[in-house]
Structure formats: C-alpha cells, structure tokens
Amino acid sequence: MAHVRNLIDICSGDEFDQPVPFGLVYPMRTADGDAPPSQRGRTWEHLAASGRELVPVR
Q: Looking at the predicted structure, is the pLDDT value of residue 39 above 90?
C-alpha cells in the first residue's frame, strides 16, 4: 500500500498531514476549518494515546 499523507480523525473531524512515511503527524485544520491550537508534529503513539483515530481521507 502506498503512503497516504492526508488523514482525518473519525471522532472529531480534524485533518492531519503525514509528509514522510513513519514520520511525525501534523495537524492541518480543525473540523470547523480553523487553524489548530498547536501545529507541532506528534507520533502515532501519542495520537492514539490521546484518543485520535486517524484514517486516510477519501
């Protein structure tokens, strides 16, 4: 399967970007279209521990 950059949290609707395979995941915008409160990259482990469920945008 090819690397998918654009991700969405199925619980909140927030959008994320993962520019590099196995790299950090960066918030892009909230579900209502605003800028995220923090634009710091996070690991998959941190996001999963925070209750995020990211899936590829279709």
A: yes
